[in-house]
Amino acid sequence: MKTRFNTYDIVCVVAELQKLVGMRVNNIYDIDSKTYLIRLQRSEEKQVLMLESGNRIHTTNFEWPKNVAPSGFSMKMRKHLKNKRLEHLRQLGTDRIVDLQFGSGEAAYHIILELYDRGNIILTDYEFTISNILRPHTEGDKVKFVVREKYPQDRARETTAVTKEAMLEILHKAKSGDPLKKVLVPNLEYGPPLIEHVLVKHGFTNATKIGKTFNIMEDIDRLMEALQEAEDILQAAKKEHSKVLFLRIFTLIFFKIIHK
């Protein structure tokens, strides 16, 4: 299993984890200061969901070594989530943020898992008022991520497929000799494996460089076809069956390895 998820991985895993909706929280444990296990149950069916701040979310069958004494954060989650049903699990916008809602109405609580940069896990009530937070901090002068403040749901990015005009602007700002993939990755939300997959499929290897083996005006249309395929794959991933989703993920990882 990958230990750090990109945007495409999150789209896929959120679709896969819909199978957990309707299960109740049996207990919560911590492995370390960033990693938590949520035991879920529905009749005889049992699942363990792993949350690792900044890195990943997935089910696990491995018997992870748990801390002998639960942390304060675990105890807080147990207090508010135990016996509650997982009602919703969604990605916020197209960002690397996952929102898990336990319980409904005014009794609902949310776990918000941030899977980028230094990461975070935030516990909020039904109005998204923060009850507990793994990493308190302030963004800018106004947004405070601390207890009793509201979690800003609108902070998640909403992106659309990049236009030809926008891509030309990105490419013209690049330096001659810059690898094409290196230019695209920080400007797109698809994640390195998916970008590499569609580039290779459309004839752009990892050796493709701006101004050398990539002519901006001659190759832009072929590049846009590759990026449209990435967008189609991303949108399809939100709907496809779980086995197909993870087959795609491991295919992309395989492509990443063999084309290095």
TrEMBL record:
Q: Name one Pfam family in it.
A: NFACT_N
Question: Which Gene Ontology BP terms does the record give?
Answer: rescue of stalled ribosome; ribosome-associated ubiquitin-dependent protein catabolic process
Location of the protein in the cell: Cytoplasm; Nucleus
Predominant location: cytoplasm
- GO CC annotation terms, alphabetical: cytoplasm; nucleus; RQC complex
Q: Which domain of life is it from?
A: Eukaryota
* Alphabetical list of InterPro entries matching this protein: RQC_Subunit_NEMF (IPR051608)
Sorted UniProt keywords:
Coiled coil, Cytoplasm, Nucleus
Record GO terms (molecular function):
ribosomal large subunit binding; tRNA binding
What family does the entry list? Belongs to the NEMF family.
State what protein this is by name: Nuclear export mediator factor
Native organism: Acanthoscelides obtectus (Bean weevil)
